[in-house]
Amino acid sequence: MKRPNQQAPAHLSRTFTGTYRLTGRVVEFDNAKTPFLKLRLSDCEGDRIAMLNLAKTHVPERIGHLDFVTASGVKCLSGQFLLDEFRKATREEVHSLDTLQSLPRVYAPAPAVFDQLVKTVQSLQSEHLRSFLTRVLERKDRIEAFLNAPASVTYHHAYAGGLLEHSLNVANNAVAMLRLNEPAMPRLMQETCFVAGLLHDIGKTYTYDSKGKPNAAWKLCSHDAFTLEACAYGLAYLDQHELDIAMTLRHIWTCASPGARYGQPAAMTLARYIRDADGQSAMTDNQQRAFRSKSQWGFSRIGQNIFWQPQLACSLTP
């Protein structure tokens, strides 16, 4: 920040301050051999590259990767920021951030899908569901895996960022089915359906590392077994504020798959919408892959799955 009665040099422009995730740092030296700490400060909008003069500004200890930090300074004409303050963010500063604002866009392989996620979640009217998603998705140990992981290794959406794309597809398609079949369903239940679809595979974040590579849990455990564990902190919050919504989510995640993951039959339509949207998203991706490098009609196979496209004499423009 510019101090009172002190003018910023001509090569500097406006002041700034904000709270971000720390996603990178390295020491560099200028031409005068002055040491600077080069920082990457990230949020859902993008990155800010900031320089901290180590000879003039104290660097707090125990600030680690993905920690919340508050920084202030001035923006140079080069586009970088010259800091005069850098510290751990306070609890109040973190709580003042919008839902998912702290997710680092830099870790999203598909920025357009990431932007859709943030925009949709921030549009939710339920304060409690937004707080629930903050407690589930903005955890340091979940962020990178959720953004980078594939939805599967060799099956559908088997690429970096596939889990996020598949999860968002399921959430949006499940809500579309709900609105088509039950247009009078309350807004809170529609938003609950979206959240249930978005997190139906959240247990997979336990089976991939931060770069989206399978880990030991991928071989040793079913991702379904991790779903409630991944959401435990958020569900404990909902138990205090929206108990029936918390139970709805638990029910959907433990019965939505064909065969019922835990042996419990579906007791509400939302669980069926999630199940059907999950299957359709997976089949759509597989069918597109099956014909990506072959003729656009006839039979094709991926693993044990056979797909067929009819040959059409002509195509009709919508």
UniProtKB/TrEMBL annotation:
Protein name per Swiss-Prot or TrEMBL: HD/PDEase domain-containing protein
Domain of life where this protein originates: Bacteria
Family annotation (SUPFAM superfamilies): HD-domain/PDEase-like
HD/PDEase domain sequence ranges: 159-292
Keyword Repeat (UniProt): no
Any single biological process term in GO: rRNA 3'-end processing
Organism per entry: Vreelandella aquamarina
PANTHER family tied to this protein: 3'-5' EXORIBONUCLEASE YHAM
Keyword check for Hydrolase: yes
InterPro entries named in the record: HD/PDEase_dom, HDIG_dom, Unchr_helicase_relaxase_TraI, YhaM_exoribonuc/phosphodiest
Entry keywords, A to Z: Hydrolase
Lineage: Bacteria, Pseudomonadati, Pseudomonadota, Gammaproteobacteria, Oceanospirillales
GO molecular function, one term: hydrolase activity
